[in-house]
Amino acid sequence: MVRTPCLLLLLLLWPQMHVSATIPEPCEVDDNNFRCVCNFRDPQPNWSSALNCISAVEVEIRGGGRSLQQFIKIADIDPKQYAHLIRTLPFERLTVGDAQVPAPLLFAVLRALGYSRLNQLMLEDLEVTGTPPPPPLEATGPALSTLSIRNVSWATGGAWLAELQQWILPDLKVLNIAQAYSLAFSCAELRTFPALVTLNLSDNPGLGEHGLTVALCPHKFPALRELEVRNAGMKMTNGVCEALAAAGVQPHHLDLSHNSLRATAPGARKCLWPSALSSLNLSFAGLEQVPKGLPAKLSVLDLSFNRLNREPRVDELPQVGSLTLDGNPFLDPRPPTHQEDPNNSGVVSACASSTLALGMSGALALLQGARAFA
To answer: Where is this region: Disordered (predicted)?
Structure first.
């Protein structure tokens, strides 16, 4: 069996470890001792190499796909006896990935991180197994400003966010969740996120409007200002509007780019958009016309890189301060030829046209000069 690469676990287990000087070090530190990256994928990795990261501000640790079940006993260790040591660690950003982690072990590490300076935590490519421990009597764990979760499976299904929330302090401002196995949160168990300003549910292509309605538990995100749902299976802007209304959120900025959006269906119910919404991103959405039922007034509307074949009429658009239409076909009506790349942004074509014009002007000047000497 192997040992976990987690820096904090190494600190807890250091007295019990036996280190071989012949094992290569899997941790690399940059020249400024700012960022340290560990990848424990070797059959017999040198776990003590993680101590190279002890002075780094940004630490990334990957476990090589190993199960950490053998370290479950660490969940019973009281981190208070190591609090003074953990407080001296300068790291503020931590990425942990590529491992199978028992839930009691994960939450024990979060409890220990409560004594650290950790500000940003990213969990990715993890499988969290087993039943979590009983929740603490009061909020404990790190005072995170940003929590990012990508491709993490949880044995407890939709209850995972409520369970995780109990082990971090309520100061979270940014929550990113991508490639999630379940976004059907247990709203009754979920506490309010009082400080959360940005919620990013992008790169969840199976979410859709219904899933968004389920994920946005009503009245749990009172401070939300930015909602990002790029590449999240959204089909109609009207359905997104209804999800926001049901949740009672008031985002100022909504990003629906990189979804395959359709025009609002005839006879669809009119939806009242959040009054605070001022910026709407509908770029790269495959739109052939401006969707009906958009907010009546916006500061920013991005419709770039869609399939609009004509310039939108004034009566099709909201009252908008800044409108972006770059990359739509009506701005470059020429049909593509075999020499043009239909996937480019138009910059190369514009440069090529300028070069051709410059070349023709130069040739003409040479001809005129030749005539002058004749």
So the answer is: 318-346
**Paired tokens of 140:** 């404990």
Residue 259, token pair as written in the block:
């979804």
Tell me how far apart the alpha carbons of residues 73 and 96 are, in angstroms, rounded to a whole number.
Answer: 20
Rounded Cα gap, residues 233 and 249, in angstroms: 20
Distance separating alpha carbons of residues 344 and 257, to the nearest angstrom: 18
What six digits make up the tokens of 310? Answer: 């004509």
CA–CA dist 166, 161 (Å, integer): 9
> Exposed (0-12), middle (13-18) or buried (19+): which is 64, by Cβ within 10 Å?
middle
Closest CA to 281 of 335, 342, 334, 229: 229
Q: Could you give the CA distance from residue 35 to residue 69 in angstroms, rounded to a whole number? A: 28
- Classify domain 197-339 by CATH number: 3.80.10.10
Q: Where are the domains of the chain?
A: 197-339
List average pLDDT for each run of 10 residues in the chain, which is 374 residues long.
45 44 72 91 79 92 87 87 91 95 93 94 97 81 96 93 93 97 93 97 97 96 98 96 96 98 80 97 97 96 97 96 97 59 39 36 39 40
pTM recorded for the entire structure: 0.82
